[in-house]
Amino acid sequence: MARTDTEIYRRFRGTLHPGAPGFLALSRAGIATEAKKKLPLLILYAPPAIATVIFSFVVYLRFSLQAGVTPAALGGPSPAAVIAASFARTLIQVREQIVLFHLAMSAFTLLVIAWFGAGLIAEDRRAGAQLLYFSRPLTRFSYLFAKFLTLFFFALLAVLAPGLVICTVATLASPEWSFLKEEGRVVPATILFAILWAGVWSSVMLAISSLSSRKTFALVASFAVFMITGAISVLVMHLEKDERFLMLSLQGNFQRIAGWIFGMPRMGLEWDVRWSFAWIAAATAIAWAILVDRVRHLEAAT
Amino acid sequence: MSALLVARELARWYGPVVGLVDISLTLEGGIIGLLGPNGAGKSTFLKLVAGEIRPSRGTILVLGRDPFANRAHFAETGFCPQQDALYGEMTGLAFVTFLLRLSGWSKREARAQAARALERVGLADAMHRRTREYSRGMRQRAKIAQAIAHGPRLLVADEPLSGLDPIARRSVVDLLLDLARDGVHILVSSHVLHEVEGLTRNVLLLHRGRVLAQGEVPEIRTLLSRHPRKVDIHLRDARALARALVDLPGVRALHLSQDETSLGIETSDLEGFLAALPAVAARARAGIRSLETPDAGLEAVFDYLVN
Amino acid sequence: MAGLARSTLLLFSTQMSRVWWSRRTLFCLALAGAAPAMAWIVASSTTRVPAGAIAAHVGWLLLLQVIVPLLALVCGSAVITEEIEDRTITYLFSRPIPRAAVLLGRWLAALVLVSVLLGLSAALTAALASRSAAPGPAVDRGITVPLVEAALLGGAVYSGLFAAAGVFFRHPMIVGLGYAFAIEGFLANLPGRNQALTVQYYLRSLIADTGSAPWRTVEGFSSARFESAHSSILTLAVALLLVLSLACWRISRREFVLSA
Fold this sequence. Notes:
Chain A is mainly α. Chain A is 75% helix and 0% strand.
């Protein structure tokens, strides 16, 4: 009996063969594709890379001075070496350097996430690529997870790698491994904070991408979220003269969490850290709810 | 008559990617089929002709003018681009009317002329619908409508038949033939050879950014002397005819089928062979049922040239 | 010249009819609504921040420093880039019109949208801030007028700059984000004459010259030296004219290669 079948997408009904999970192949392909674009990589990672060198140098100076090396011996009799050395004396803690790095670089690391994440779902939808993906034995969750892993990789590269470099320099420069012995918990703290930061922002960015019809919209929307929540939290803080209003922005909450994870009460933000965790958990949950809903309806978009 | 197009040492590259290399040619007009496999440089050539891009080296003159960003050229040229792009929120009528108004037409005239152009491409019933609701074939026809609406002297059409169903394809081919009869020069690209064969015998063959051949297909075929012409004959007694043909001048090879009812001949002089065949066949009492020359067409020419 | 004016007008009117209900406009509407919404929330919930301070803080920190450049970026960078991304620029550039008309006509339509949204946003911000019942300076003409003026002027200049960026750069959105929030953010907050290289400095000057006392409570208004309002407007107008002229010259010569 004759039959017609005109639908574009058909659910996979075959047998799956065991092998590498589909999301790994997809995320590997995503990373490889983005890694081929050398100029954006160079431009986006240059500021964090330069900052890593500077912060590492300050850490190196600090331990060198601790070991009894004079400023002149470090860089000759140049005024720059003397200034750097005196700067290093005032910045005693490696953890402070790492937190300072995160705060100073937050706009640039967010630009990295925005650039690599903006098009991940928006461009797939625009090009109808999801029709190709979903005609393979790939679940929607695998698709989402693959996109998340791709973005998470680039985000982690921007935040974890600098932190680990600074820790490595501190380890090697500290006399008799004093950094590891005395401040060893900075290393897991660095890893934990970087994973948290990259995970939350990657989720938010992917959600924005899924809501956008093109990459440029997603890019500007992510900046709008970042800049507007930041500006609102700062202006209410100024008006009400109450720093707890910094909680209104994700970056304010990350600042508080950084202070808690790295054990720095001097960060000056006094509200209960559980509020910040609740806030970023809520943001992540909302992001994933949007993602699941948008990806569920992807097949209808051509 | 002045030439439609003159190119001298024309080259175009996109960074490290070469689009066209060292093209020198003169096209006289009429319908010219631009042929070549994907990546041959057809679209690049058409974009240069349409004035969308400028050469990296060399010169191109279309209707006596440098086409790039040349308003006089645009007034006389219609360009149907390859990309499947329209203003989605406009109706077909609004789209063509808008572009006609940019060509200097008054609002009323533009609207009437746009409606005529859309009717001509078979979109009369759909002209008040938004173009984002159009099918691929309808979008293709809307693109053709905007290219012909202002009555150009030259129509540059990049793959105008792609995405069309066989009926729409036939009607577009008829439309292009109509335009040509009205004196419009048409430069049309395709990699579907039989489509072009239905339009014109005058072709420009591109491959890897270079011109492989230019002119009438039979003439080009004749120039390919290293490839003997093939003739397939179905007949009652193939062995008898083969015996009679073996000494005929120009015959290079004979292929006899197992059941001896067909004979494949390769000859370097097709015209001489066809002139002599009736007499030879009559003498051999071969009983010819049918005769064809399978490699005389564009496809064979293309195949020989590209491979 | 008549051809340029006619084509510009035609492209402007067509673009105006297309622009209103696009997703971009809805996004811009949401963006423009953030400042009045914030003013309303703060004014409704506070008992000690006066209306003038709310309008000045929301007006400067949120509207003029963030929303004006962002909204202008969204609309301005799309002037040419949207046609390139949608691959419809071929239709416009294969018509017998001056190419500059495409830039000018579409930018004028963007300018109308940006001006309407930002003008309304500024006026509403001032109006909703005045709901605060806290004692202190109220919202007066010295707050509303310079705020609306600065929002309109900022919108015009930024949208013009970003529209021009679309002619010169392949990714004007990135360039615009970098310019508005990295370069300007850096130069405008560094002490010295380098501030005069930013649009923000002239907007701040415009407010400082004509605004009332509550503006001085906003960070950055009390310490720096400012230009007069006339000089600020003139400088920005000349800069805008110069950039648009350069962009018109460039668009007439540049080829836009589209992928198939």
